Every structure is written in structure tokens, then in C-alpha cells.
Amino acid sequence: MSPVPPEPPKHGPVPKTMSWRLISAALGALATLLGLYLLYRVFQRYEMNDLVAALREMHPSAVALAGLCTILTFLGFGVAEYLAVGYAKGKPPAALTVLRVAVAGLGVGHSIGLAALSSGAIRYRMYTRRGLDLVDVAKVIFFSGVTVALGILITAATLILLRTELVAELVQVPSGTLVLMAVAFAALAAAYPVLCAIRRRPIRLRHTSIRLPKPRLALAQMGIGALNQMLIVATFYACLAPFTKASFLPIAALYVGADATAVISHVPGGWGVLEYIVLHFLNEPRLIAGIVAFRAIYYLVPLFVGLTVFLADESLHMLKDRPRRRAASMAR
């Protein structure tokens, strides 16, 4: 009697996790292509020699001011990260340790985009050596994302309400619509600490339960988020000021709008989006030199520093772990 051939394997439906990863990868690729296309549209209008000549005209004091604002921004990120780890773990590691993780994770995440994945991977790698697990790191990323969103909402609402007519003329949107948007932004930001006060049960996010922070911590998130956003805007203005007659407020409004657009579209680092929006609304060709300087000071330098901190942490961990691995190999 001949053996019965085995049944072919039955392929069930694709797991939801795999489907979500494929969708995320596809969206990330599309966002990257969009950013590259916008960069091409912007830079095709300029000669490299003109760009280099404009950058050489930038006064060292403007570079120093932008660098100082960048340092203060990352110190603010470090404070927000310390609060985030305390919220997730209860008792955070040493402040300098948290600052190192923030510089490494956010320095890389801000530059290459998809911060929840890029900086999240670095945070996970560095935090798990210091007593945090995957759920704790997810809570840190959630807390940090909310802090950034609150900063954008508060800053956008403030800028619109301070100079409604100016922003309306700049972005070609009716003043009444802008005021309604500002009120909605402010209401969303104000609703967050209220929600934290009235809802003490954890919120379910897929397979994880996340407890909202206490109202006092939520208010601290709002303050740090808004302060950090203004420091980023100050960095941007310091780079653009030598090349434009536009004042601080319109440049701030354009940056916040471009930043929000980049966050929503998931374009890595907002590359292309910022350049296109600013040069579209402020039709001053020399501004491209200021944007390039901003990219170098706020994105590329922190990327280099972040990678250096991360690689140094990896090297120290390998040196500390070498005796244990040697003992394990000898025991075999």
C-alpha cells in the first residue's frame, strides 16, 4: 500500500502585524520619494556656486546663535526624556544617562525621520541595558510624541492669534478660518491635562496598556513642548535672518506649518517639505542658503553627535561584557 502523500501546507491569512508592517514600509517609501522630489524641485533652480557664495556671507555670530539654540533644544529634549522615563519606569536612571540616550536617539531620529522607529530602536538598545523593557520604551516614545505634538499645537495657536492678518496673508487662508484653527489647536492642547485628570484607567493601544500621566506632569509636557518648539524656531530664524527681510513671526509660522506637514506626511526629517513651503511663500532665492545652514546645524551635526554617542555606548558595553563572554566560552 503506497504511503499517503502529505497535505500541502495551508496558508492562512496574513497576520495583522505583518500587514501593518508592509503598509508602514510602503508609506515610508512613498514619503521618502515625495521628499526627494520636493528637494529636486527646489534645488534645480540654483547653481551650486551661488549657494556656496551665499553661505560664505553668513556671519559667524548667526552660526553661533543657531548652534546655541540647537544645544538648548537638545537639553530641553533631555529634560522631556527624563520625565518620560520617570513616567514609564517610576524611577529613571541618572540624568546624564537619559541625556545621552536622548542625544543619540533624537539626534538620529530627527535627521532620518520616522523617529518612532529610528530613535525608538536606539532607545530600546540603550535603555534595555539600564533596566527598561519593551513596554517601558514604548511608553517613553508615546510620552515624547505627545510632548512634541503639544508643542506644535500651542506654538501654532499662539502665532496665529498674535498675528492673524499676517499669517492669513502669508498662507492665503481667510482670517476667520485661521482663528477657528487656532482655537481648535488650543482646545486640543488644553484638553490633554483635563483628560489626564479625569481618566485614570489605562488606555489600550493594541497589545499594550498605557496609563496617562498625572495632570502636573501633563502640564510640564505642555511647557517643555512649547519651549522646545520655540527654540527650534529660533534656530531656524537665526539661519534665515541674514538672507531675508522677513521678521520672526512669519518665519516662525512657516516653520511650524512645515513641521506639522512633515509630521503628518512622515517625510523623513521633513527633507524637501520645509524647503518647498518656505521658498514658495517667501519668494526670496537666497533663503535656500539659510535653510541649508539650518539643515547642517540642527540636523546633520546632531546626527553625527548622536551616532558618536551611540557607538561609544556600544563600545563601552562590549568592553564591560567581554569578561562575562570569555568566562562563558571557557565554561563550554
Itemize the secondary structure elements and their pairings.
Blueprint: H1 16-43, H2 48-56, H3 60-89, H4 95-112, H5 115-127, H6 134-162, H7 164-171, H8 175-198, E1 203-205, E2 208-210, H9 215-240, H10 248-265, H11 273-281, H12 287-331
Helix pairs in contact: 1-11, 2-12, 3-4, 3-6, 3-9, 3-12, 4-5, 4-12, 5-6, 6-7, 6-8, 6-9, 6-10, 7-10, 8-9, 9-10, 9-12, 10-11
Whole-angstrom Rg: 23 Å
Low-confidence parts lasting 5 or more residues at pLDDT below 50? Answer: 8-12
Q: Report the β-strand fraction as a percent range.
A: under 5%
Main sheet, how many strands, which sense, barrel?
2 strands, antiparallel
Number of domains: 1
List how many beta strands DSSP finds. Answer: 2
Q: Write the element-wise H/E pattern from the N-terminal end onward.
A: HHHHHHHHEEHHHH
Terminal residue distance: 49 Å
Structural class: mainly alpha
Identify the quaternary structure here: single chain
Number of helices: 12
